[in-house]
TrEMBL record:
Subunit structure: Heterodimer of SoxA and SoxX.
Protein name: L-cysteine S-thiosulfotransferase subunit SoxA
Source organism per UniProt: Enterovirga aerilata
Enzyme Commission number, as recorded: 2.8.5.2
Gene Ontology terms: biological process: sulfur oxidation
UniProt main location, coarse: periplasm
Keywords from the UniProt entry: Electron transport, Heme, Iron, Metal-binding, Periplasm, Signal, Transferase, Transport
Reaction catalysis annotation: L-cysteinyl-[SoxY protein] + thiosulfate + 2 Fe(III)-[cytochrome c] = S-sulfosulfanyl-L-cysteinyl-[SoxY protein] + 2 Fe(II)-[cytochrome c] + 2 H(+); S-sulfanyl-L-cysteinyl-[SoxY protein] + thiosulfate + 2 Fe(III)-[cytochrome c] = S-(2-sulfodisulfanyl)-L-cysteinyl-[SoxY protein] + 2 Fe(II)-[cytochrome c] + 2 H(+)
Similarity remark: Belongs to the SoxA family.
Gene Ontology CC annotations of this record: cytochrome complex; periplasmic space
Keyword Phosphoprotein tagged: no
InterPro entries, per database record: Cyt_c-like_dom, Cyt_c-like_dom_sf, SoxA
Keyword DNA repair attributed: no
Gene name in the database record: soxA
Cited Pfam families: SoxA-TsdA_cyt-c (PF21342)
């Protein structure tokens, strides 16, 4: 990350991702659904109750028997507690609430859960990370393990540590999710992207979070 981008990220008055966080705060307090219930009605002050939550996701959802990401858990809460449907993937609202919740963990170390179900999910994600895909026959590891620090199209190749999602990407001129970034990479190697919220994307996210264990959450991060 360039010094200019780092300065933009660390200054909340200059970080464009903070607009999504502010939108998320308003949505956190907004009542919705047949019961007229807000996120705050159940969870209270997010600055306290959501502290550290993003550092533990994806996590195992026993009721559904599957791993879920942070945005997926928000969808579940909307359905189970508010009686309303999930926001569309990459919608302003879904990204905003996810960014607001994740922002409460800024500075905390990523701490993936240790339950065996998530260990199995991370193992599947790891296999996907090293699997060659697409017409270019490349794996995620070919860039982010073997060639990180080099440049691709003038842009430094990162180690794929998902520490700041949802992030504001200057390329997008918008806030976006890790799933959007992963789908971009799949398109880049000319592979068919997995649908949003597909198990493969959740498992890959779980693996990447394990690789980044101990690194601090930066949401909302800013990247080129």
């Amino acid at each position: 990350m360039s010094p200019e981008t780092r300065a933009m990220q660390t200054d909340d008055t200059a970080n464009p991702g903070m607009l999504a966080v502010l939108d998320g705060e308003a949505l956190w307090r907004a009542k919705a659904g047949p019961a007229g219930r807000s996120c705050a009605d159940c969870h209270g002050d997010a600055r306290i109750t959501m502290r550290g939550v993003a550092a533990r996701y994806p996590a195992w959802n026993a009721a559904r028997g599957t791993p879920v990401g942070l945005a997926g858990q928000i969808d579940i809460c909307r359905a189970d507690r508010q009686g309303i449907s999930a926001w569309p993937a990459e919608s302003r609202e879904r990204l905003a609430v996810t960014a607001y919740v994740a922002h409460q963990s800024r500075g905390m170390p990523i701490s993936p859960p240790g339950d065996p179900e998530m260990a199995a999910a991370r193992e599947r994600g790891g296999r996907l990370f090293t699997a060659r895909m697409g017409q270019l026959d490349l794996a995620c590891a070919a860039c982010h393990d073997d060639n990180w620090g080099k440049r691709l199209g003038g842009t430094p190749i990162p180690q794929a540590h998902p520490v700041g999602y949802p992030i504001y990407r200057l390329e997008w001129q918008a806030v976006g999710s890790l799933q959007r970034r992963l789908r971009n990479c799949l398109s880049g190697v000319r592979a068919e992207p997995f649908p949003y919220d597909a198990p493969e994307l959740i498992e890959l996210e779980a693996f990447l979070m394990q690789r980044a264990a101990g690194l601090p959450i930066e949401t909302p991060a800013v990247r080129p």
